[in-house]
Amino acid sequence: MEEIRLxxxxxxxxxxxxxxxxxxxxxxxxxVLAEGLGSENQKEIRAILEKAGYEFYGRSGYEDDxxxxxxxFFWLPEKxxxxxxxxx
Length: 88
Prior knowledge:
This protein is an alpha+beta fold and about 90 residues long. The chain contains two helices and four strands; from the N terminus they run βαβαββ.
């Protein structure tokens, strides 16, 4: 199987369920993008990806409009993020 470099998940609120179903030991994309709809969904996604060995890197979306509630969150494997690239 070819190496997957990017996994982007935008499944209208089902993102956490999809991410939870992945075998992270055998599937290691370099970058994971996941949409977060609401804070509970974002917390669940964070827990899944941190357990899989990924760290939050950044986000893109409606930061100035909390009512919009949509952001794409970028995750990278822990080993990829060096101190020069770490963002929180």
